[in-house]
Fold each of these.
Amino acid sequence: MRVLHLGKFYPPHRGGMETHLAALIPALRSFADVEVIVASESRRTTVDHVNGVEITRAARLATVAATPICPSLFQLVRSARADIIHIHHPNPFAMFVHLTVAPTTPLVITYHTDIVRQRVLGQAVRPLLAASFAQARAVLVTSPAYLESSAVLNRLRGKSHVVTLGIDVQEFADVAPSDVDAVKRKHAGPIVLAVGRLVYYKGFDHLIDAMRTVQATLIIVGTGPMQHELEARAAAAGVARKVVFAGDVADVKPYYAAADVFVLPSVARSEAFGIVQLEAMAAGVPVVNTGIDTGVAFVSRHEQTGLTVPPADAGALAGAINRLLADPALRRAYGAAGVRRVREHFGAPAMARATYQIYEDVMAPCGARAALDAEEPA
């Protein structure tokens, strides 16, 4: 079986969808012949191989409302001759290409998130999305919570399957002590860590405000359009000395291993899952997240693997962080529980196996729908 994945970008580009693809694709190679086409960072098409998988980065003409526009994608998809096309949504341009040049090729869609802030785009592409979802043989949803809370997914229940995201758990356990020590020598402890693009829905502005009453160093790993605004906010709040904007680091694993607390302070539904929580949990770090109406609090559970607070509440964030920093035993207990939860429910092999089961079902005669063997995590 030859499966073509169409995503937005692929690592080293950073983002939740890209992290997911980097975990899923190598694991899928045990089951299928996999090819990946994503957007290039430039106007040139390149082909390389990552972990034995061919990654084609299609020349990107422009990016409109967070959607890469790659005219070469039409020919690339046409020539791929895939048995299944798997689109990672939101990705309206890839959906348009599928409907245009390969409408009879069975389609699977992973629904990463609703289109939240790009309302004009959402209205403009609504007929396209409707046509693409109608064509899809299966829609993969990243958590039960998102399936329940998304208006779009509520209309697609008949073809929706929960396949939770997963990671290579061992990768975050195998970190050289010298690399961890290097992070700790550079930054005064205790260390509060956040990882993500510097964009509105991540809620980093509220986390920076929370640092007024937290005696620790906050390290934010990532870049994005709000960097200057967030740096100015840290200065205005009087916490610039204890907020470090680390940018894109080559290897984030030592930062997780060095952290005392990990925080995901998201404020909008664009944060559908928060895969960085899995990375922190795999490293044994307790998580502070927010109770937005998505899968975020499904990943790290309140009073089990960390603490959940209301969104956009700097005081609540500070209170949760301070509670964990003041109680090493609680941090160890939540950290150990996080490792167990990731190993039991969020490993890449199980994710790949469940995804391949969907492919087999899609390719079965008459499009029969077989139930997944794996149970949804509790």
Amino acid sequence: MAFSGQAASQTGNLSTLRAEIETRVAGAPGAVVGVAYADLASGDTLHINSDSTFHAASTMKVPVMIELFRQAGNGGFSLGQGLMIVNRFASIVDGSGYSLDVGSDSDSSLYRLNGQRVRVDSLLKLMITRSSNLATNTLITLVGAERVTASMRALGAGQIMVRRGVEDQKAFDAKLNNTTTARDLAIIMRAIEEGSAADASATRAMREILLAQEFNEKIPSGVPAGVRVAHKTGEITAHSHDAAIVYPPGRRPYILVVLTRGLSDGDQSSRLIGDISRMVYTHAIAPR
């Protein structure tokens, strides 16, 4: 377990919540966990290890989504235009080509459309709701990784780095990875909720896409059935993440990001994230 850079607001019984989370993480030997919580109703905030850098895994697809909407809104392209699906991409290390492994992708549908055109908005939905790697790399080629990172800086996320697409092995070997912190993911999720990530119609569309997420075993598992959660998960070897906007009924939402590394058992890391989510939800809805 590793915790550092801890900070919390003085609103509510956050010290109890912190202690509960730290005790739960201590029960998962080897786990390093970053947590960022911001309640838009009460003003409560809690940061545990939230400035530590983690491999972003598929949470980096949220910054890509934001940049897609921003560029489309500026007239760079239409979300309705078609992009050719070609499973061939250039490494950021030396420009050499590589292809994605369908067996490592959580969505296989696009591979059957190789050589055909698919609408940008359809690719966007697959990238978020099914975490399609082929959709992601196709869209990063369209918008540019450097421009994604630049937009994150403009939103106040100072540490997120989107350097490349998925499965660039040469870049991975060179440690040129997409990275993030829990704090930065919380910043951009809040920007989506509050409408500052792009224009109002775009951020509304982003929320609807995130609400349609199909992989719900992490943060959503810690809230009651029927509570809406707009979120994006991420997994890579010994890393498991979730970044969410949680909508308890009858009140404003809260932002919760949980990043983990060090657990090789995916079910164990999902349970850990779900338990932290349950603790936060209980705190958020407690009478004041």
Amino acid sequence: MTIRPPAPSVRPGSATFRPAGRTDREGLVCPTRRALLASTVLGLTFAALPAFLHGAFAQDAAAPNATSPGTAPDAAKSAGAAAGEWRHGLSLLGSPKYPDGFKRFDYVNADAPKAGLLRLSVDGTFDSLNDIITRGTPAAGMQLVYDTLMSPALDEVATEYGLLAEAVSFPADFSSVTYRLRAEAKWHDGEPVTADDVVWSFEELIKNNPRQAYYYSHVKSVAKTGEREVTFTFDQAGNRELPQIVGQIRIMPKHWWTGTDASGRKRDISQTTLEVPLGSGPYKVKEVSPGRSISFERVADYWGKDLPVNVGTNNFDEQRYEYFRDSTVELEAFKGDQYDFRIETSAKDWATAYDFPAVKQGRVVLEEFPIRSSGSMQAFIPNLRRAKFQDQRVRRALNYALDFAGMNRTLFYDQYKRTTSFFQNTELASSGLPSGLELEILNSVKDKVPADVFTKPYENPPSGGEDVRRANLREAMKLLRAAGYDVKGGKLVNAQGEPFTIEFLLASPAFERVVLFYKPSLERLGITVTVRLVDTSQYINRLRARDYDMIITGWGQSLSPGNEQRDFWGSAAADQDGSSNYAGIKDPGIDELIEKVIYAKDRDELVAATHALDRVLLAHDYVIPSWTYPNIRTARWNRFGHPEKLPEYSFGFPDIWWWDEAKAAKTGGTR
């Protein structure tokens, strides 16, 4: 249930924000909370990809709620109600912070003005307004048009409150969940949102999106069980997160999608389209320039504007997303006041590119927001579906060849630290040697995991000066020779005389300098290195086809890992169309540990099981870990206000920010 920018927003599509779980110009994973659910195309992850992949439940992977660590979230307590009773919210970590009947979230400004145009940037292009399917490249921000059954709080972890649903109920064994819709919920054409819409939306989602079908594979059936009630029945009991994750499904209008367009042609949700869709959310599409820009206008009579989960949010009259195919042009456009807000993921640009007059005059504000718990692994990921990467010694050798200290100093202005966990900077990260409950869990799969996990903590190879680099390359060559390779004629070859080659598949020119720094060390080992820079469409197609040697991307995590771990590391996902198992991991020990994470009975068991999973993933050297940064670097034209105290686990942009007319007048941007 994760995932993964710094996820500012309850609603997705905040363009300069990067897709959940994606990596950006320096391989930084932007950790938002439930990227897997909302990223309706592949969870694709590169700089050229648009921001539509933001989850409707995007939020920072977070530290525990201060009121809930160690609380066993049993059915009777997990929402502050007895099992089977109707409840207003759901939490995996104890009782929800906000009681039934609460008026608004503590962190919002209930009196925030509704005004202004927010301009954001998106990398790449788009050719569709249908982001349910895996075809095409959907536009950013489409989820602004829709509602979900539940909505998260940005000052809690793994907690949701009713949006389309006014109440939710589930039995003590978590074998099903029933949602009751609000009678006042309606589409923008005035038609009510119905239980039939919910059933149809779920069925179409899993029919047209393999990744979602895999994620929701434990939903055995969905049925209308009352005038405004829908019940999801699961094929198993005991999975605490299943009642929550179905509440995050986007609900779409059955009557519109099964109708005809202006030309009389029957609509088809399985196909790409540029027809403006009908929604029920706080915004609707205003204007589309295919591949170049899309704008959304606030719905003045939005049915849910006064709900507790929406008070103080959706404050901009219009949100516009401008597309750029070149990151340098995109940055210069910001300097030229062509859009308002950006997240800077380049250490070099952060250090050198913001010394321009508007910054000195205070018209542009540079600010870093802390990532409370990044929970991410960003890495060079070899494709284990290719035989040359299947030997762990080869993968470890590639790690020895990476001169992180030199790269950090030369390219990144010493801003980064090396990543050492798949759950970096959270309590879920393994450390030291296993003990207690974690050791018990590892012993239960002892014959299926590397022996090193019991005796040796994971460490990346040392990194430092020239002597260290040379020693690392000697160790790398030793490992490669042990794996059956040798150097002949200056080329690393296997026993059959076949050369060892690596093609790095990239979708952003900004990654080239990273690979080019890595390349000489690999070549000193006799490895032939090529860099393949492709456009977004080619990259997506090759990722879908698993046609790559090495990519640079990653996985974001939340504090409450669950079903998405199957998608990341599970054997079944390795060959699943659209999964996030980029490495192609197939390991029975990891499969068992994933199930122990999913079926953990309480917080202590969840943490211990995740420690064990993390430790075993690291021990296999599936990836070459890259780097991490503790803050979100932002630049904005000084036209906006935000609550004085931001929520604990997100800086809330743009959802709880607003247009400040006085600041805009001084900055020179009244609109």
Amino acid sequence: MLGEVVVKWVEGIQTLLPMCLTGGYFCSLRLAPKQTECFVRSHLEYAIRTGREARFLMCVYFEEHWEDNLEDFRSSLNIQSPPPPRKLD
């Protein structure tokens, strides 16, 4: 669920649609305490940076890029690699 919350925040920042912004906010309230800590410490900053700096993702035909190298594709969209996963115990 943590990844879906990050996606909602990126979508909300890029589109500025109220339903996306409130979805990201309220979904983040449903995270477990350890997930919330991980989200606040690293993933929220990543989502904000990606939403601001990446190409507008709603116009990307992802289906046309299945065979592309992931790092090259991220670079073409101006998306940095996500924070490393943390063990949530």
